[in-house]
Design brief:
Elements lengths: L3 H6 L5 H4 L7 H18 L2 H40 L8
Length: 93
């Protein structure tokens, strides 16, 4: 197995794709969302369905941005924790 640093350098790490919520309700909530979208598809006009698809795309983009912000914050927080644990002083702090 390649080291973490090698995988990171080669671009083989995709944290967003590896994170699967462990909440037991995740799959049932996701399935309910899919079911509701299918219901809407049968009840709405083609134009309205297109609007719903655009809404879902925008919502997905927002989720990706939130996940990135959470990942970035968590990574920084972890690095700061390691600095404190190792008692490394930051310049200007």
């Amino acid at each position: 197995m390649k080291s973490f640093l090698e995988q990171l350098y080669l671009g083989h790490l995709y944290p967003l794709e590896q994170i699967i919520p462990q909440d037991p309700e995740f799959h049932s909530v996701n399935e309910k969302k899919s079911d509701l979208v299918k219901i809407l598809e049968t009840k709405l006009s083609a134009e309205d369905n297109q609007t719903v698809e655009e809404l879902l795309d925008v919502d997905c983009n927002i989720s990706v941005m939130e996940a990135y912000a959470s990942f970035e914050y968590g990574f920084k927080l972890g690095a700061l924790m390691m600095l404190e644990v190792l008692d490394i002083k930051l310049k200007g702090k």
